[in-house]
């Protein structure tokens, strides 16, 4: 189910149901997709044009063959890119933005999203591609699904407060289907046990698909981003109970203590719970700071040390200009257009109320 518009026109459901069924579900689902999402003004792009459905090759649960992967392998010369992130995440621009490949080993841009919103800094795009490739290499499975980054030149993106200068990105969790095998990720929200449901047609209980968050693959993707020193990952927005599941897993794995500690510092649940996707924020690079890139809080001691070593000082955010504000749909507006839903959807929505409030965990970087 997609109560965050991240899943607008959702991928897995359309793939499994076929287009006739997809059209049948489109009315109630697409309306509800905007529900709750808007509660925290988080991230989605429901107003964006919806491109054609995924190609048949991207709807299979089978892993691509070696020759498929070879054909998809992006021959990217990262050094050839010289992107610059300008100003603030919520009032910014992007110079020479780099497109995330639509599909590469271990990663894909959600085919149901506006491909114009897949640009980031070279550091961010490289980190995502390499993290997806690491999961693919070490654990196999299906590609991680990436939703919006920024427009090629940045600026306001519909329904996002940030995502304006190539340093914000939304990513679905890796997921397992009812048979325990990897399934193409959808924007389902997950409970404290890591269970969720792809409700598809919200008014039809017979098409519901039980899901489980795939903690090992999701963790490895995070670990790759955290340990990528060139990526400069700053913040991971994720629901508190999913943070706990991930941390519990990491503690019994052979994960470096420093990686776990950074994960603990970087993760927060903001007003919107982020129980159906991650929102990642990356720091300005030292070069970009010199060009006018501005970081939001928090500024960790270990990042200040990096800047010091680079001979750069962080600079405060600029005052966001009114014209830079993207239109955000309120929770009430979204809910009022959600349409009919069956009793099971209602029950999950009631349960979701248990974790939708922003927690106050008392951690130093999580106000
Ligand atoms: Zn976001």
Structural commentary:
The chain has 367 residues and is of the alpha+beta class. It has a single domain, classed as Muramoyl-pentapeptide Carboxypeptidase, domain 2, CATH 3.30.1380.10. It is 31% helix and 14% strand. It has a four-stranded mixed beta sheet with strand order 8-15-13-14. Strands 10-9-12-11 form a four-stranded antiparallel beta sheet, with no helix packed on it. α3 packs across α4, α4 crosses α5 and α4 crosses α6. The longest helix has 23 residues. The N terminus is likely disordered. The protein binds zinc ion. The site of zinc ion has 7 residues, from β8.
Low-pLDDT stretches are 1-64
Total tally of structural domains: 1
Under CATH at level 1, the class stands as Alpha Beta
Per DSSP, what share of the residues sits in E-state strands of 2 or more residues?
5-15%
Order of helices and strands: HHEEEEEEHEEEEEEHEHHEEHHHH
In total, the number of strands is 15
First and last CA, distance: 29 Å
- Which architecture per CATH? 2-Layer Sandwich
Summarize the structure.
It contains ten helices and 15 strands. With about 375 residues, it is an alpha+beta fold.
Secondary-structure map with pairings?
Layout: H1 11-33, H2 66-72, E1 84-88, E2 91-95, E3 98-99, E4 103-104, E5 107-109, E6 119-120, H3 122-139, E7 144-146, E8 168-171, E9 175-176, E10 182-183, E11 195-198, E12 209-213, H4 215-227, E13 233-237, H5 240-251, H6 257-266, E14 267-268, E15 278-282, H7 286-290, H8 301-310, H9 331-336, H10 343-352
Parallel strand pairs: 5-7, 13-14
Antiparallel strand pairs: 1-2, 3-6, 4-5, 8-15, 9-10, 9-12, 11-12, 13-15
Helix pairs in contact: 3-4, 4-5, 4-6
